[in-house]
## 1
Amino acid sequence: MSIFDIMGPVMVGPSSSHTAGACRLGLVAGNLMGEKIVAANINLFGSFLLTGRGHGTDKALVAGLLGFKTDDLRIPDSFKYAKEEGLAFEFGEARLKEANPNTVEFILAGESGRVLEVVGSSIGGGRINIEKIDGIITNFSGDYPTLIIRIFDQPGHVAEVTSMLASKEINIANMQMYRNMRGGEAVMVIECDQEVPDECITWLKKVDGVKDAAYLSLS
């Protein structure tokens, strides 16, 4: 735990969990989309649903989708900026079981027609956890430069990806693998100690068996 975990993030308040954490959830979801978002269904659960409006959770979630960071003074006016950017959004209730009380479910549509579903929770002090991507269970914080690679569950993919990162002298901090069934669709989540160059993402998207590759940059 660092001093920033104790003091909380640099942020536009009032709440580190309901405002800063919400903004980070939107920011990560937007980065995972990897293209301009034109429509968003934002479904809230638990405390986010019951008390979020008073803490500015709704505005912070939209701000994150627009790419605003937690200290951006435009957060309270995010609805206005969303209209200017052509982002249509609506809020609803998430039908989840045994979820963290500060949980949001994003259903996002990109300008290419791509649809992405992301479930994440704010776990206090501005920290977050991304729990599902398109229905597949994940578990990462957004605290590291992170690769999220959707693949078909076939032998050799892990070795290909890790060898590529090693060739670029990128150290892996954490790596997790999730799949919906044997031989089905899987997700690799690789948290790195260094930023991953664009050329690596381009290479990944061309690898046989890779369905999609998204990258969460901290720069």
Note: The helical segments are 3-7, 16-33, 47-55, 57-65, 78-85, 157-167, 198-206.
## 2
Amino acid sequence: MSDINNIIIVGSGPAGWTSAIYTACAGFNPLVIAGELEAGGALMNTTEVENFPGFPEGIMGPELMEKMQAQAEKFGARVEYEEATGLDLSGDIKTVTTSYGTYQARAIILALGSAHRKLGVPGEEEFSGKGVSYCATCDGFFFKDKEIAIVGGGDSALTEAIFLARFGSTVHIIHRRDSFRASKVMSDRVQEVENIKIHWNSTVEELHGGETLEKAVLKDTQTGETRELPVSGLFVAIGHDPRTSIVKDSITLDDAGYIVVDEPSSRTNIPGVFSCGDVVDRTYRQAITAAAAGCRAALDAQNYLGEL
């Protein structure tokens, strides 16, 4: 029994680290399965976060995640940079299988996060890594002084457009509607950047090129007309899908694939298994709401362990 953890937290975004902070502070010595390539969650691929409480001057996404991790480890959380590949949630003792081994716990917190949503158009897979990217902060530098496009209209898309404007000769924002879904602050800010051009009521239909991306075919959503836009880089920022493939056969999901919890708690349909963050939230999807959900999951898990 000495090898059985009290709590395993699968995921390391704002929800996962907040769960780790709270359960560590309570003396449960949680184990965080942080992932390998995408440890830290979606904020590792963002630039400046300006709306997280406590940082009036803003903070870079990776730095915020590093601070959360340091706080969790300060109180005794342990971290393994491994990818969860399987979960056995039956019985009183749960098992997490990773790319390197197995771990057991009495309670599990699923903070699985979400994955980049793709356009699903011809040429997207072909030019992935050859002009098509899902991470502006990772790849923006490679398109210095080139024509760049970004698809999306939310806060994340506009934040990335402003970041890309540092590198590209022109940044083309392609949005399917005639107004942004983003906050007014971000909408106003992006329209003040001289080398950003907005293509309203437009969708990407196809991508073409040789060894690398050379142009995108755009379609006008109102007239149906198509036109070509010469670009060397195209960044996709149209949202995310919950990472629930690993639990789809054991945890109750909604029609969009999000984990269903017993609101206002974080309890799933399996006793001892809790969930929080973007893998649950299909409405707000903010770093602060993910962190708050992580707190709830931690408290629920503590109460569960206390009743055993």
Note: Residues 32 and 245 are 19 Å apart (CA to CA).
## 3
Amino acid sequence: MAVKIIDGGINAPEGFMAAGLRAGIKEGKTNKDMAMIYSTVPATIAGTFTRNLVKAAPVKWDSKVVFEEGSAQAVVVNVAIANASTGAPGFKDAEDTAAYTAESLGLKKENVLVASTGVIGFRLPMDKIKKGIDMLIPALSYDRQAADDCATAILTTDTHKKEIAVEFEIDGKKATIGAICKGSGMIHPNMGTMLSFITTDVAIDRDLLQKTLREVVSKTFNMVSVDGDTSTNDTCIILANGLLKNKKIEGESEDLEEFKAALYTACEYLAKNIAKDGEGATRLFTAHVTGAPDYETARILAKSIITSSLSKAAIFGRDANCGRIMCAMGYSGAEFDPEKTDISFSSSEGVIQVVKDGMNTDFSEEEALKILTPDEITAECDIKSGSAEATAWGCDLTYDYVKINADYRS
């Protein structure tokens, strides 16, 4: 069977439970602020983490669990406080969160992952974190509302939850992946996204799972940018509990390709939703580079286009200022021939070519305005030097982005 998107969330695969609720981490708020994901059996895990040298305490703890233990059963998430730039005391808070959860669930602390997001520089209020864990465990459920609560409880400046579930076939059986993420600002991943958690009932070799996750992340989450700021807390974790009872995927095979396609579908969907929900954004801005000699060239060019502040501002203003895109391509560091380059804008309103062989075309400004008005815009860039291509996702740069981040702490 082909990959099929189904109604479901993080607890869609067999053996996974979820919960999300308000623990009251930050006074004066009403939002859900803690979440938990639990597998009824130990799950093989893989993860990708921020390459920012300033790594949050949860990132350090999870890296240790992923790369030294390789197995986990629970994930605990809090919002409002990032537990970053908190030194050894902050790491102890992360470890204590895992230990308290483990004791309550009858696990080892090394089998509990933790994640935090919010304001940098403050320690966790451990009394509230422990209270939240005490509330989360009895709330764990397989039902749809629990998945919704979990996806909602990890959000910060996001305007809506981001979740997906897909079905596909492995070893003749119906397999499932569930995934959630959060991210709206401080988005320029160099590993994965702000926070993303993925579950599956597939049995797969640990090293192969890590390799597959990295490959998929590099073409999805790593191709997103909202503002050029790589977070201290970027984390993407997948848990595979094997309850599908398929023949374990241990090498290159048709089953691996099916699994990879399903994982890509889930991660691409979430990545695009992060870009579309960028802080203050009104438009999803996609760059599709074709005709490249290799993927890396196409990747660099596409990412440069959607991270350009001037290009993003032009998309907000519905201005077909193709010179800004050419400029962003030119300083990207990728080698290409500007005098061979074609650029078009496309949307639900049609397509308009604005550059032909490196020169502006005599396009209609009125038609361009019409095409740049919908909430999803694509810049199609053909450098005519090969058959490789890449896609990157960003958003427009608006007044509201500045307003949101000017008073973020308050």
Note: The two ends are 49 Å apart (CA to CA).
## 4
Amino acid sequence: MADKKVEAITSMDEDFAQWYTDVVVKADLTGYTSVKGFMVLKPAGYAIWELIQSQLDARFKETGVENVYLPMLIPEGLLQKEKDHVEGFAPEVAWVTHGGLNELQEKLCVRPTSETLFCDFYQKDITSYRDLPKVYNQWCSVVRWEKETRPFLRSREFLWQEGHTAHATAEEAEERTIQMLNVYADFCEQVLAIPVVKGQKTEKEKFAGAVATYTIEALMHDGKALQSGTSHNFGDGFAKAFGVQYADKDNQLKYVHQTSWGVTTRLIGAIIMVHGDDNGLKLPPMVAPTQVMIVPIQQKKEGVLDKAEELRERLSKVARVKVDATDKSPGFKFAECEMRGIPLRVEIGPRDIENNQCVLVRRDTGEKISVSLDELEAKVSELLETIQKDMLETARAHRDSHTYEARNWDEFVDTVENRPGFIKAMWCGDTECEENIKAQTGATTRCMPFEQEELSGVCVCCGKPAKKMVYFGRAY
């Protein structure tokens, strides 16, 4: 491709999986380690996570969430208490069998998730209705021994947050479950510029031990779906397994109703695959560690670097900004800015200084704009806002144009094979049909959206009366 700036990146259309790996490596987001499936989050990658974490944490706290930290090891006996839960995680658990040189009396599991730990904690911490609700969250890492791994999307250890709440009533628990799903959906759209579909997982796809699992589903550039966040209503099942009870106002012992919800570093993978192009990353300004890069042109000429530094100081009041004063060529610096996804580039050279102007270049569209230095701060602020909004609209247009309807089996199969994306189709509610669809096409139920449509009266697979409209798709 003649217009491809960085030859080291495989074209998306040629091999999307290789393109993804190339971008992760060339943008210096992660590094490999001596243990397969465990990755190093390099500064460029971790800085994105820090911005996700700080902005999401602020949104959590606005809804009354408090942060805690629980241990990373779970005794085997504790894990065994909730049968469905342990069966769901058994194949992925890593075990600690020795403490120093001594074999442990009881094996300890490295947390794959912390439901059992929170239940054990709540059982001791909750005694009365006055102790409720407990609306806790922890930021931590978990370990799941995945067979196939890929940076951000599926690694054996990953960073996440897991919220775990306890409530007096089923209604309060359901309200919190939906509330947190909405927090995730708003965050993805407003901060990550990723549009999502909100809905409920089917019985087959729900979390092990949950009464109901709700999800936000995003569509990647290659037409595959990515589960981007989940919120679970546990009802009182875990409470009964762990004896988490409280004395109500009438002095009767009752079981609490619990929820759990989480997002992970997988969101960084979503940002890459929703927004990136053949020149590398495209970061939405709100999660770009560097929002503006100043590139001095002919920087050895007197006054150029000083002016670049002056602009950096001015712009630092409105954006996260850096100057690239390295001895690389301007062309190389431009390509590097694009590779790293920096939303806005400022070019300043002797002629620009003479004319009291600079050139702003948008990463998302490539558009170049000459701006008077007198109005630089205002213009940069305005452009960053515009880029953020435009990236969401571009992603939404892509998703909508790759969302299809299938009213019968032939249409469904043809769409899965020839038009990658979301497929909306009617379903009878039978798990057997769900399994048949997956076995024959590789497409899975992504969610039963809250916004239901009646596409036809019959199931796309078996032809029996339909109960729900479902989003299907091949997924990561």
Note: The chain has a mean pLDDT of 96.
